[in-house]
Amino acid sequence: MRIDIITVLPELLKSPFEASILKRAIDKGLVEIYFHNLRDYTDKTYNQVDDYQFGGGAGMVLMIEPIDKCIGALKEKRHYDEIIYMTPDGETLNQRTSNRLSLLKNIIILCGHYKGVDQRVRDTLITREISIGDYVLSGGELGAAVLCDSIIRLLPGVLNDETSALTDTFQDDLLAPPVYTRPREYKGLNVPDILLSGNFPEIEKWREEEAIKRTKKRRPDLLED
Ligand code: ADE
């Protein structure tokens, strides 16, 4: 999979990709990530990429021209399956969306900033708009990092234990059951006996029941349909 990220702040985005699972996925060649600085696509003085909004009002708006040039240059080289704009008024990201996006070959992610981007970008260049939750960030970069993390960990070969993404919370619309590790007893707190029984069908059954119990209690909305 190839992900091209367009941003005015590449330095804000880079560190999540330089550590841990994401770095390993890149090093193994399972995903390619490219950062494009919008300022490299403007002819204006001071590399200006934003301007005041027509009609007045506080806040700058990212202009269409550098975004169009950057996306145009990328599209000349290859086909993109989705061109995603990170914005608080997009569809809220969930596991199903990440699962689907992880099957794509090439995607572009555009990070918004300030008051956002000129509406004509959204109308003509963007195929999908994604929010990571009902709160406002200072830019789309952290949202893009969250989106990339949730996608990349699903790519085959990224996680050591191939099955572990399948047992994540939200797969099957259920929260994950409780987990325990050594020691068996800590300050009088014990691990449930069933997990020490070696009876794997019973353990599986227990985990399923606990997952349902937890979901009913914490996220009944997930069980609705
Ligand atoms: N940009 C600003 N806020 C955002 C959010 N909640 N999700 C995605 N991009 C954003």
Main sheet makeup: 5 strands, parallel
Q: What is the gyration radius calculated from CA atoms?
A: 22 Å
The figure for the number of domains is 2
β-strand number: 9
Any idea what the shape is?
elongated
- In DSSP terms (H or I, runs of 4 or more residues), the helix count works out at 7
CATH class of the largest domain: Alpha Beta
SS-based class: alpha/beta
Give unreliable regions as ranges: none
Descriptive labels:
5-stranded parallel sheet, alpha/beta, 32% helix, Trp Operon Repressor, Chain A, 225 residues, two-stranded antiparallel sheet, binds adenine, 9 strands, Alpha/beta knot, 19% strand, 2 domains
Short description:
The protein is an alpha/beta fold and 225 residues long. The protein is built from seven helices and nine strands; from the N terminus they run E-H-H-E-E-E-H-E-H-E-H-E-H-E-E-H. The protein folds into two domains: 2-152, SPOUT methyltransferase, trefoil knot domain (Alpha/beta knot); 169-224, tRNA(m1g37)methyltransferase, domain 2 (Trp Operon Repressor, Chain A, Orthogonal Bundle).
Q: Care to describe what's here?
A:
The protein is built from seven helices and nine strands. By secondary structure, the chain is α/β, with parallel strands linked by helices. The chain has two domains: 2-152, Alpha/beta knot (3-Layer(aba) Sandwich); 169-224, Trp Operon Repressor, Chain A (Orthogonal Bundle). The protein is elongated, with a radius of gyration of 22 Å.
How are the SSEs placed, and which strands pair?
Layout: E1 2-7, H1 10-14, H2 20-27, E2 32-37, E3 50-52, E4 60-62, H3 64-77, E5 82-92, H4 95-101, E6 106-111, H5 119-124, E7 128-131, H6 141-152, E8 185-186, E9 189-190, H7 200-218
Parallel strand pairs: 1-2, 1-6, 5-6, 5-7
Antiparallel strand pairs: 3-4, 8-9
This protein binds adenine.
Residues 86-88, 112, 131-133, 135-137, 140, 143 line the site of adenine.
